């Protein structure tokens, strides 16, 4: 399992600096929560890490290998998975077809892939939906499907954007259960969330962003006691 390192990364869109000389690290068996107000650069950071956009300066390393020049599929092949605030699924395909859609079938037999997909649907509580079209799932179930589809590629690092937003508490509980299990197996997580109670309960470390900058970093209890964080993010 490789350490993820973001080193002095900046990204500008026109006259707006979305990410400003940001540094962070996430190691094996670690959950890093990323919080901050809307427009603080959190999603842009995840997009930079998984290659959807390229940094203007700085570098991103997985272990000792730079990944900021690579394309998203190359970064995914190196073990970086991603879920989005609004789940990106193939609505007209079945749940099982979604699971198999992004897998290189040349690397494994069809039987093994199907079993792996079925096991992940069982893990996420979606096995009974396998033959249904993905577009019929609830918003929370779509997030579970996207998560399961990312896991079929066996990532070592998962980037998750607002996984707990707008979903039923039972889905949140299922996500937390799976994240805890994956962490125990040595996986690394970077999770963007506005759900302060949930993200502080599961994170080993919290990074706070504001206007593209990292304004605080530390253990959850330290961050919640930080007066600057309270002023800028919690509103008091």
TrEMBL record:
Keywords: ATP-binding, Nucleotide-binding, Transport. It comes from Caldiarchaeum subterraneum. SUPFAM superfamilies: P-loop containing nucleoside triphosphate hydrolases. GO terms for molecular function: ATP binding; ATP hydrolysis activity. InterPro entries: AAA+_ATPase (IPR003593), ABC_AA/LPS_Transport (IPR051120), ABC_transporter-like_ATP-bd (IPR003439), ABC_transporter-like_CS (IPR017871), P-loop_NTPase (IPR027417). Residues 4-236 form the ABC transporter domain. This is ABC transporter ATP-binding protein. It holds the Pfam family ABC_tran.
């Amino acid at each position: 399992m490789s350490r993820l390192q973001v080193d002095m990364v900046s990204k500008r869109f026109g006259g707006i600096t979305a990410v400003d000389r940001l540094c962070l690290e996430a190691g094996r068996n670690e959950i890093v929560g990323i919080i901050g107000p809307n427009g603080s650069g959190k999603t842009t950071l995840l997009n930079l890490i998984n290659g959807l956009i390229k940094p203007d300066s700085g570098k991103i390393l997985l272990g000792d290998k730079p990944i900021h020049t690579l394309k998203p599929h190359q970064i995914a092949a190196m073990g970086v998975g991603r879920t989005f605030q609004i789940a990106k699924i193939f609505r007209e395909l079945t749940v099982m077809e979604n699971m198999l859609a992004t897998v290189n079938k040349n690397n494994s037999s069809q039987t093994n892939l199907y079993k792996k997909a079925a096991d992940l649907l069982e893990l996420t509580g979606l096995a009974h939906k396998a033959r249904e079209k993905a577009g019929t799932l609830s918003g929370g179930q779509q997030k579970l499907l996207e998560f399961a589809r990312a896991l079929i590629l066996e990532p070592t690092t998962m980037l998750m954007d607002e996984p707990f937003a707008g979903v039923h508490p039972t889905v949140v509980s299922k996500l937390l259960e799976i994240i805890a299990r994956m962490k125990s197996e040595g996986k690394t997580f970077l999770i963007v969330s506005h759900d302060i109670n949930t993200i502080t309960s599961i994170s080993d470390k919290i990074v706070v962003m504001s206007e593209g900058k990292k304004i605080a970093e530390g253990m959850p209890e330290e961050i919640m006691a930080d007066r600057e964080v309270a002023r800028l993010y919690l509103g008091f």
